[in-house]
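Bench log, entry 3. Co-assembly request; chain sequences pasted below exactly as received.
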Amino acid sequence: MLLKNTSTRFGHISILIHWLVALAVYGMFALGLWMVTLSYYDAWYHRAPELHKSIGILIFIVIVIRLIWRFISPPPKPLASYSQFTRISSKLAHFTLYIVLFGILASGYLISTADGDSISVFGWFDVPATLTEQGIQADTAGIIHLYFAWIAMVLSLLHGLAALKHHFIDRDITLKRMFGFNPDIK
Ligand code: HEM
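Structure output for the full assembly:
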């Protein structure tokens, strides 16, 4: 088990967090689109948003941990075969993904707490409201939340396609090392 990243490998903590967040983000997107179609009399009308909010707060915590961990354990070096374009565009894409994720989480928090209600995370703990009664807070945050969610989907899809291109066309270890493959062992 390799906990920390090295100059050539992603450690298991970074790998676990990457795939956990990816899975959670796609799941939350589907859950969000589904829950807004529910009618008041549906059994999930209250339960689905509660789940969505609770998981959203947990994702926020995990991403903060991920950024702290990234500082303690920086990602491996880009492969020597990467072009200048790949180096710059991947940095930009990863940075934008972090920003967009924070945008989604912050706007989601502002929608949920606009009326002054705190968010109960599975009944384990409460996240209090801070900014409230800002007039159109819930509406504005709602628009940002939806747009950012779509941006995250499109960007992460392009990011995933780029990873597949590295794997199937360039035949390098970009994708394999995000699954824990050890390039030092041939
Ligand atoms: C919502 C979904 C996703 C998000 C938010 C996301 C986010 C990220 C971020 C922020 C990084 C940079 C890690 C760092 O250096 O701190 C990264 C790396 C990576 N991601 Fe994703 N990702 C997602 C989905 C995917 C998918 C679907 C694939 C593959 C099909 C993928 C493959 C990779 C690979 C291979 C790397 C390592 C790139 C490198 O070595 O520079 N990701 N991802």
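Residues 12-179 form a domain with the Fumarate Reductase Cytochrome B subunit fold (CATH 1.20.950.20). The beta strands are 119-121, 125-127.
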